[in-house]
Write a structure and sequence with these properties.
The chain is elongated. By secondary structure, it is α+β, with helices and mostly antiparallel strands. The chain folds into 3 domains: 161 residues, no CATH class; 92 residues, PDZ domain (Pdz3 Domain), CATH 2.30.42.10; 90 residues, Roll (Pdz3 Domain). The protein contains 12 helices and 20 strands. Helix 1 packs across helix 9, helix 3 packs antiparallel against helix 10 and helix 8 packs across helix 10.
Length: 467
Amino acid sequence: MGAMPVLDTIVPVLITILRFVVVIGILILVHELGHFFVARWTGVGVERFSIGFGPVLLRWRGKETEYALSAIPMGGYVKMMGEESPIEGGGGPVIDPARSFALKPLWARFLIVFAGPAMNLIMAAVIFSVVLAGLGRAVWPATVGKIVANSPAAAAGLHVGDTIVAINGRSVGYWDDVDQAVAQSAGKPLELRVRRDSAESTLSVTPRLRAVADPIFRDPHETWDIGASVQGLPLITSVSPRSPAERGGLKPNDVVVAVGDQPMRSPDDLLETIRARPATAFTMTVEREGKRLTLTVTPDPVKERTPSGDEITVGKIQAGLALKADHFVPYGAGPAIYHGILRTWDMTVLTAKGLWKLASRQIELSNIGGPIQIATETTRQANEGFLSVAVFVAFISINLGVLNLLPIPMLDGGHLLFFVIEAVLGRPLSLRKREVAQQVGFVLLMMLMVFALYNDLTRLNVFKFFQ
């Protein structure tokens, strides 16, 4: 009997570790296969292909290459023949020059190194494409859920509940069609055919340029807008650990029906309600698995700059928010691949932007996460279903690809930087200079890993036991 509580504690931890190892292992395997296949394609011999570092747990030998599975699942490597030139390395084994990495043309070496991060990005595009092909595109009826006061929509006489059936004589099927027409309007008037209470009428609305903040980094940008948004219930997509949302009892896939006695008709309604109530508790009615629950949430007060540069205090609950899909429209194979690639590109740009903001201290360094956070989030996504795990793996794969392209020695991006310098100088850097750079890069990476682990442990409140 006494063993059961211990097992109840240990088993979930072991499952979390196993999930982490599987996810990281897949990403590392894909990354190293990129190096491996392009090396083979360009005629470079491969001495060892290893997943993991440290003591070898399992090994087997192919015709030319030794394949190994090692104990520390935090990386991997492809050891190629003649990675350093025989002249610089000195005293090494005799290698067929035609199979030597160091003696290959610069373009071949560049491709071999670039192939690792590229494979991670390709993997993400494949996952997104498959998910989109299977799930389809989320769509909503072109019904107005919110009208901004003093907006072009309000001036034109558009009402909440109106359904837009045509724009400039072209039939409208979903709200996406409305967004596209407004975005492409360039400020020219749009003729809307609107259905209201079974009667149709024609309205003219002129989009205006409006400064808005993007939902991730709150960076200001201008967009064409009519001041109307789609009707639909807000959906909680994710909840950050130890956040106001988690403390209030919110869970992923909760559908927010009302705040207090105010019904929610769009995610904008909920977002505005939260932002307007920093450090102020309010009740929230949600639908969860067919039941309605009333929760109390208190947003954290957070200082933020408006698009005009003013500093304000807003409420945040640290939860992902989306519009609950009305239904899904299937993608064909071609559109699914196109949108999968587009989604990967958008996420790659977003990741690079986030890294820059971290480096320039526009984002707190406490946002950096390590293996514990990845393991915890993997378990969280697994509880939400296979599709959530797949999208999460794609996201981590993009992060891994972008991180490896950073121009830091020890990373693929550092090697690519050496190749660029070689192309400019007409000769490679000396072995000694590269060794020093690698040592500096190793120290930087170790410091980053320790800092990420510190952040992970801080999130788990581990250090409170030592205070």
